[in-house]
Write a structure and sequence with these properties.
Helix 4 runs antiparallel to helix 5, helix 5 packs parallel to helix 10 and helix 6 runs parallel beside helix 7. The radius of gyration is 38 Å and the shape is elongated. The chain has 348 residues and is α+β, with helices and mostly antiparallel strands. Helices cover 63% and strands 14% of the residues. Bound molecules: adenosine-5'-triphosphate (ATP) and magnesium ion. Adenosine-5'-triphosphate binds next to helix 7 and helix 10.
Length: 348
C-alpha cells in the first residue's frame, strides 16, 4: 500500500465534508420540501464534493510542496527536477522517497563527520610531531650556546666541539623543514613532476657514488644487478627519482647489517622498469609494513633518531611515486632484510 497520497486524502476528506453538507441540507430541506428533495440533496452533495476536492487537493499540495520542497532540494542537492517532484507527490511516494533520501543523506553525513574527526586527530598528531621534531634540536642548541656564553667559549676543550654540535642541530632543523616543505608541496599538488626522458642506470650509479662513504663506514657492499651495462631510459622527474633512490639507499644502509650488502636490481618488463633496493638488514615486522609510509612513522623510534631520522623519508618517497602514477611495494622479514620495489614508465 502506498504510504501517502494527497489525492486519496483529498477524496476521503471531500467525501466526508459532502456527506456532512448533504446531511445538514436534508435536515433543513425536510422541513420545507417534500417532493424531489433527494435530487436537490444529491446535486448539492456532488457539487460540494467537487468544490471540496479541488480546494483540499490544491491547498494540501501547495502546503506540502511549500514545506517539503526546501528539504528535498537540500537533501537531494537539486537532483530531482521540480516536474518530477510533483509527479512524486501525485504518485503518492513522497514520504517514502524523502525517507530514503534522508537516510542516504544521514549516512553521508555520518561518514563525513567520521572523516573530519580522523582528520582532526591526524592534524593534532601531525602538529605534535612537527613541534617535537623542531623543539629537540632547538633545545639542544640552546644548551650548547648557553654553556658557551657562561664561560665555555674560553674553554678550549669544549668551545669548538659545542659549536660543531650546534651546527649539526641547525642542519637537522633545516633538513626537517625542507622535508616538510617537500611533503606539503607534493600534497598540495604545487610540485608538478618535471617529466623528462633520462637514463635511470646512470642516475642509480650517481646516487650509489653519493652514498659510498656512508656504506663503507658500515662495511656494506652496494651491488647493482640488471641493465646489463646498457642504457635504460625512463620518463620521470629526475630530481624526484634521485630523491627516491637516495632515501631507499640511505635506509638500506642505516637499517642494514654491519658488513652486509645492498643490492639494486633493475628489471624491464613491457612498458615498465622495476627498480628494487634490497638489503639484508634488521627487516620490518609485518604489522609495521603498512605504516612505514606515514609521516613521522618510525618502527624503532630511538634507533631511527640515533641516526638522525625523522620518519619523513618514506612518506616523501610514496608521494613522489604517486605523483608519477606509479607504485611501490615492500616485502620484508624481520632480521632478514627488506625489498623495496617501485616502477617507472619505460621509454624504448
Ligand atoms: N631498509 C629498511 N630496513 C628496516 N627498516 C626500515 C627500512 N627502511 C625503513 N625502515 C623503517 O621505516 C621507518 C620509516 O622510514 P623513513 O625513511 O620514512 O624514516 P627514517 O629513516 O626514520 O627518517 P628519515 O626521515 O630521515 O628518512 C624507519 O624509521 C624504519 O623503522
Ligand atoms: Mg629514512
Amino acid at each position: 500500500m502506498k504510504p501517502f497520497s494527497s489525492k486519496r486524502i483529498s477524496i476521503i476528506l471531500s467525501l466526508l465534508f459532502s456527506i456532512i453538507t448533504g446531511a445538514a441540507m436534508s435536515m433543513s430541506l425536510l422541513i420545507s420540501f417534500s417532493d424531489y428533495y433527494w435530487i436537490y440533496i444529491l446535486f448539492w452533495m456532488l457539487l460540494s464534493f467537487i468544490i471540496y476536492y479541488v480546494s483540499i487537493y490544491n491547498a494540501f499540495n501547495k502546503y506540502i510542496l511549500k514545506k517539503i520542497k526546501p528539504y528535498f532540494e537540500t537533501i537531494d542537492a537539486l537532483q530531482i527536477p521540480e516536474s518530477k517532484l510533483y509527479r512524486h507527490l501525485e504518485g503518492g511516494e513522497l514520504l517514502k522517497d524523502i525517507d530514503k533520501k534522508f537516510m542516504e543523506w544521514a549516512k553521508r553525513k555520518v561518514k563525513e563527520i567520521a572523516t573530519l574527526k580522523a582528520n582532526e586527530k591526524y592534524r593534532k598528531e601531525f602538529l605534535g610531531n612537527v613541534s617535537h621534531e623542531l623543539k629537540t634540536p632547538l633545545f639542544n642548541m640552546q644548551g650548547y650556546i648557553s654553556t658557551l656564553i657562561d664561560g665555555g667559549l674560553n674553554d678550549d676543550n669544549i668551545n669548538l666541539k659545542y659549536l660543531h654540535s650546534s651546527e649539526k642541530n641547525i642542519n637537522r632543523l633545516i633538513s626537517v623543514v625542507e622535508d616538510l616543505e617537500t611533503i606539503s608541496a607534493l600534497e598540495s599538488g604545487s610540485r608538478i613532476p618535471d617529466m623528462l626522458v633520462f637514463d635511470i642506470l646512470k642516475l642509480i650509479l650517481e646516487v650509489i657514488e653519493m652514498q659510498e662513504i656512508r656504506a663503507k663506514k658500515k662495511g656494506i657492499e652496494i651491488k647493482l644487478d640488471g641493465g646489463d651495462n646498457k642504457n635504460v631510459f625512463v620518463r620521470a622527474d629526475k630530481n624526484g627519482v634521485s630523491n627516491i633512490l637516495s632515501n631507499l639507499l640511505i635506509n638500506s644502509i642505516i637499517y642494514g647489517k654491519e658488513n652486509g650488502y645492498t643490492q639494486i636490481v633493475i628489471k624491464e618488463k613491457d612498458n615498465k622498469v622495476f627498480i628494487s633496493v634490497i638489503d639484508d638488514g634488521i627487516g620490518i615486522k609485518e604489522q609495521h609494513i603498512n605504516r612505514i609510509f606515514e609521516r613521522f612513522y618510525r618502527v624503532d623510534k630511538s634507533r631511527s633518531k640515533l641516526q638522525g631520522g625523522t620518519g619523513l623519508g618514506l612518506s616523501i618517497v610514496k608521494h613522489i611515486i604517486e605523483a608519477h602514477n606509479q607504485e611501490i611495494k615492500v616485502t620484508s622479514k624481520l632480521k632478514e632484510g627488506c625489498n623495496f620495489t617501485f616502477s617507472l614508465d619505460r621509454v624504448n
